[in-house]
Structures are given as structure tokens and as C-alpha cells.
Amino acid sequence: MGLHIFWFCLIALTWTGYLFLEGFDFGVGMLVRGLARGDTERRVLVNTIGPVWDGNEVWLIVSAGAMFAAFPAWYADLFAAFYVPLILVLLALIGRGVAFDYRGKVENPRWRAAWDAVITIGSIIPPLGIGAMLGTNVGGIPLDAQGNRVGSALDVFSLHSLLGALGVLGFSLAHGLAYTALKTEGELRERARRLLRRYGIALLLPLLALLALQLGTIVTGIGFVLAVLGALTAWWRTSAGRDGQAFAALGVVIAAAGVTLFGSLFPNVLVSTVEGVPPLSVAEAASSPYTLEVMTWIAAFATPAVLIYQAWSYWVFRKRIGVRHIPAAHAPKAAA
Amino acid sequence: MDKLEIARWQFGTTTVYHFLMVPLTIGLSILVAGMQTAWLRTGKEKYLAMTKFWGKLLMINFAMGVVTGIVQEFQFGLNWSSYSKFVGDIFGAPLAMEGIVAFFIESTFLGLWIFGWDKLAPKVHLACAWAFSLATVGSAYFIIAANSWMQHPVGAKFVDGKPQLTSIFAVLGNNTAVWAFLHAIAGAFAVAGSFLVGIAVWQLARKRRSERADDPAREQDRPTWRASIKLGGILSLVAFAALLLTGDSQGKLMFQQQPMKMAAAEALCKTEAPASFSIIAIGDVARSDCESVKSFTVPALLSFLAHNDFSTEVKGVGDLVGQYEAKYGSHYPNDPALGEYAGKPIDYVPNLPVTYWGFRLMIGLGGLGVLVSVAALWLTRKGRYPRGFLGKWLPPVALLAIAAPFLANSFGWIFTEMGRQPFVVAPNPTGVDGMFMYTAQAVSPGVTAGEMLFSLIALASVYLVLGVVEVFLITRYVRAGIPGVLPPKVDEDSDSDELAFAY
Known about the structure:
The complex is a heterodimer of chains A (336) and B (503).
Chain A: H1 3-34, H2 38-49, H3 53-70, H4 72-81, H5 83-102, H6 109-139, H7 159-183, H8 186-213, H9 218-239, H10 243-265, E1 268-270, E2 280-281, H11 282-285, H12 289-316
Helix pairs in contact in A: 1-2, 1-3, 1-6, 1-7, 1-10, 3-4, 5-6, 6-7, 6-10, 7-8, 7-10, 8-9, 8-10, 9-10
Chain B: H1 3-42, H2 45-79, H3 81-115, H4 122-151, E1 156-159, E2 162-165, H5 168-172, H6 175-204, H7 222-257, H8 259-266, E3 277-282, E4 294-298, H9 301-307, H10 317-328, H11 352-379, H12 388-401, H13 403-418, E5 423-425, E6 437-438, H14 449-480
Antiparallel strand pairs in B: 1-2, 3-4, 5-6
Helix pairs in contact in B: 1-2, 1-4, 1-6, 1-13, 1-14, 2-3, 2-7, 2-14, 3-4, 4-6, 6-7, 6-11, 6-12, 6-13, 7-8, 7-11, 8-11, 11-12, 11-13
């Protein structure tokens, strides 16, 4: 196996890892206003992801960085084609990131409500934008022979974009509910469970529909079947009150989705919908063997370490959080 | 404005803005880790107070640095896709390494540090502080190595018309990168030094002193502020010395690597031997013929800055233009990808007012920052505080002087990036022939000017709002003093379920 194929798989893995990790923290963000009742419950939700969301988001940065290093044209042409959605994603990520930190820093209901709105919107836009981009990447983008987008910013959108956007959004929300059930206690946990049981499958349908469009090889078929089984298992386990197993089953759904989506893209990284423009293959887009070798060494040493210390941080913060754990709000008073 | 100009404004705006947060984050992270170390080793309350107070301000700033940094990772692809494809084989590697090696450590251990006060053993918790602060320094190295490749491309050969990496050690060990990194780190500590001094002097001088537990200006906090002034003042001084030394080495390198940038830094129109250093110019430096400029100069100093002796010739802008045209061509290639620049003459002279004044503002404001810090250090030595005029004006001046090293950093980067124009990858005079790229060739061909304008306006507006919010929050926490971050304990119930820290 050439290193370029290894890097294609690794990038598939980092994107999938990203959707897995930040999927639930987007979901929790979306629920801050919808699921929680009152400020203390909102703080419970925010604090379930407080110590980890930033580490989750680095998976996005690394996905982008790894594409840049290993497949420059994939990175450049895909991002430039999805210019407007990505700018919206970036704005949302900016707002939501500071919102977590800033919302409790002033003792004022309007201040908090404003940041809660930023968290909610900031958690809805990124899964939509990233889902649309990844879905369209698989379905095909109107690119010319140089890899530049043909037509306007709107011309990139297709059925794949729609299903990708709704698919990642729905998955994130379902995963956020499962995470809330796993990480909180009391009423909040019950509400999350109830919603997941009731709407979980429906939330996963757009993603499953996107996967169904990509059937055709053994690999994509296996991914699709696993995703369906994962979805059913998640529903079954959450009905049985097993939060951890439901959460893990949803992890299987996104992992299987990663297999099907990137499996159907392979052996290409960019497929043009313009007639006569050949697809850009993994081999053509790859950086030089030396660059890939350098990056492989870095990844070989760093990745296990990253997985270990990130897992350790989840272990440190493994306890469920409930209303009783939330200390009284402490923000400095306005100038005396 | 055409696409190229919008894309450049966007890069300039987002990068300069991001780099307002970064130096403070780097400098303050290391300092806070040091403060916590001091607390663990001595058990003195003032070091805990320092850790908590400066740590809180660090967190407010850190959040902004993190989120504005994401834009950086994406905008090479968004706005500069041709650039990304041209240099990706080399430039992508340090960027990816920054993420894999530095950002993961930074983000994970920052979370552990913020939320782990009661969950981790004290030494483990301290180790988390060192982990994330050293990771910020590490990330600076990778990104500066990437930038330095654009200033001085090394470790690459040409394959099929594109640069290809031949040695990662050459790229990471680029002499340009080593000096630029040291200079940037020294700049980060200069920022942190002035930040500590400005705020701590203001706190020290505050009226309404009492012993009340919730008084933001408590008598008992004086040692905390004094220790902060001392730390910040000494740090400013050391950082400034380091800035001069590293800056001098960088300058000497630049005279070899990008002679035009350094001639532009001086607005040096004609070749001189020995060359004099211009302290300040009166008139319009924009014209490269010097017709309307009167400059106050130090004779022969520029020769020394460039070559370490007082007689060597330094080339002026006029002569360099001829050299550049002979070597790299006088007109842009007739390539449709260049849009309206195709076939047009190339202007090799950077924006002279920006480079000339940027260079002077960098040095001048850096000097101003350290001057105020040292003055504050002297005036508050050994438990003193000046009476009368000095005592009244020291706090506002020290507060205002916080801005000086921030701006000096910005002007330094504006100078070095604008001074590289019209190149995005400047040619290495001793490197591979033809390995350079004009900025006009770098911009994304498929993206429309409208999209870019939309994103420039959107990003700038959001940044503006968040900048106001950050300053507002920092001000609020500064006013609240130590009680704002170390609330007086209400109950001593150690069985409480409550988290030590929660958002």
C-alpha cells in the first residue's frame, strides 16, 4: 500500500473522528436552549463539554492541515469551492468558542441569553456546512480541469449537499442527546433519553439516505449495513436505559458512515460534475513520497500520544454532572 | 477593489487581529505556569493570587486566540488556493505538524487545567499548565517555519514546475525561521511584561484600601501587585534586549535574503557606501526617487546593521529594481490565471510608507513599552510608591503603555509581510532558480470578488464586536482584582459536590 493511500485513510479517519467528537458537542450546544430549563440546567449542559470541546475541535484543524500537507489540491479546491459555507462555519465556530467561556463572566440574564443564542446557532451552522461539504465532495462538485469552481457560490449545492448537511446535523443532535443522557443526571438525563428514543431514528435518516446513494461496492455496502445496525442498536439500547451503549452505537453509525462516504470517494479525492473533466485521483493529488514519509513519522509518534491524553482527559472528567454540582455563579460585579 | 486586494486585506486583517491575541497568550501562559510553580514550591498566598488573577485574564484572551486561529488554517485554501496548490508539498507539512503536535496538547491540557483544579493532584495539575504553555511556544515555531519558507525558500527542488520538499530539516532549521521565532517569542514576553506592569501598577495605586474580603483594592493584595510589577518590569527589560539582538540578526539575514525589503525599510532610494540609517523622515517617502524627502540620519549605521562594519555599500531601491527586473523579469507572464495582471509590468518596490514607518513604529513602540515598564519598576522599588505628579500619572501611562508592545508586534509583521511584496514566496538569492511566486498568482481563481468581500466584511465585523467584548471583560476582571478570581470562602464544607470551576 502506497503512503498516499495510507494518508487518504488517515484523513478519512480524522474527519470521522471529528464528526464523532465534535458531533456530540455540537448536539449539546444545540440543546442548550431547547432541552435545558433554567440557567443552572444550561450550565450543566455547557459544563459536560466544557473541558473537552476545544480538544474536539482540533480534529477539524488537523483534518484540514492533513489534507493540506498530503493532498494540497484536495484541500485547496474543495475549500475554495465551498467558500461561503465555510466562512459561515468559521464565524459560527468563532462565536460558539468564545460563548462557552464568556457566558458566565457577567452576571446578567440578557448577557447570558445572548451568548446562549450564539451557542445554539453556532452549533447548528457548522454541522450543516461541514456536512454539505463532505456530502458534495462525495457526490461531485462543478470544477473545471484546473480544479477551480465553475459557476456561482450556489452552483455547488446538490442533493448530496442537502443530505450531507441534514445528515451531519441530525447525527450531531442524536449524538448530543446520547451524550447528555450519558453525562448528566436527574431530569435532564431523562428528557434527553426520552427524546433520543422518540426521535433518534428519524434524526439519523438523512445520513442513512446519503449513504444509500453511495452503495455499489462491498466496502460501501458493509458501511451502510453497519450504520443501519448501529442506528437500530442505539435505539434499542437507549430504550433499555443503557446510555453508554447507545452513545457507542451512535459512534458506530458515524464510523460506518465514514467508511461508506470515503470508501465511495476512493480512488479519487475530487470528482467533477462538469462533463469531460476527469476526476482527481488520490495518487495524482498526493504530495511527494518524501513529504508523505515525513508526515507519516510525525503521525506515527503523535497520534498514539494524542489518543492517550485525550482519552485521559475524558477519564478525568468522567463523572456525571447534575444541578447539584454547579457552583453559584461568580462573576465580578460592575465597577463600584 | 479587485480580488487580489480584497484577499490581501482579509489576510492582513485576520492575521494581524489573530496576532494581537497570540503574543499575550504565549507570554502569559508561560508566566502563569511559572507563578503556579512558585506557589507550589513556596506555598505563598500571593503566588496563588497571581496564578488565579493572571490566569483568568489569560483565559479570556486564550479563547479569542483559539477561535481566530481556526480561520488561519482555512484561509489558505479559501482565498489562496493557487498558492496552496503551488507550495502544498512543503508548506502544508509544518501546518499539519502544528495541529498534530501542538494544538492537540494545547487544547486538551488547557481544558484539564481550567477544570482540573480539584480533580488532579497539584503536581499533575501544574504539569498541565506547563504542557499547554509550552505547546503555544511550539505552535509558534511551526507556523513561523512555514512563514519563513515564504521569506526564504529552502529544502526544496523543482519537479514538474512545482516546489517539492527535499529536506524537512532544512525547512524547520531555516535560519530565517530560527531568528524570526526567537524574535517573536521575545516580542510575546515584551507584551506580557507590559501587560503585567500596566495592570499591577494601576491596582497598586488604587484608592479605597481596606481589609474587607470583597474589596477589589485590598491592603492584603499589595504584595501580589508588587511581585507582578517586578516580574513584568524585569521581563520587559530582558525581552527588549532579546528583541534587539534577535532583530539585529534578522536584519542582517534580510539584507542578504530580501535586499529590497530592507532598502524599503529605510526608504533608501540610492545605493550608499557607507550607508546611513534614517531615524525619521519628513516628507513623502512613497516615491522611490527621494525627491521630496528630508531624512535625519546616523552616518554609517545602516552599513553596520546590514554587514557589521561601517563602510560597506548598501543597495538602494533604484538599483535593486534593475537587479530584480534582470533576474525575475520586468512583466508578469501572459498567463490568463493572472487575470488583469497578466502581461503587466511588475512593481518590485513594496509600499514604502508602510515599510518605512512600520519599521520605525515597531522599534519605537517596542522601546516605549520597555521604557515605561522600567520606569514603573524603578519608581515602585523596595515598597515605594511615588507621591505627587509622578504618582498620579504613573498608572494611566503604564496602562496606556500596554498597547505599545502589541502595536510594535503588529507593525513588525505588517512590515515583514508587506515588505515581501510583490512576492508571496520571495525568491531565495542563493536558492533554486525560479522558485518564487507572485502574490497576484496566488489568489483562488474560482472564488468571486463578491464572496471575498462578503467574508471580509463578515469577519471584520465579528472581530470588531468580539474585540470590544474581550476588552470589556478584561477590564471588568482587572477592576474586580483578586476577590474577583479568588472569592472569599463561604463555607468550609469539604464534602460539597460542587465543581471547583464551572462555566
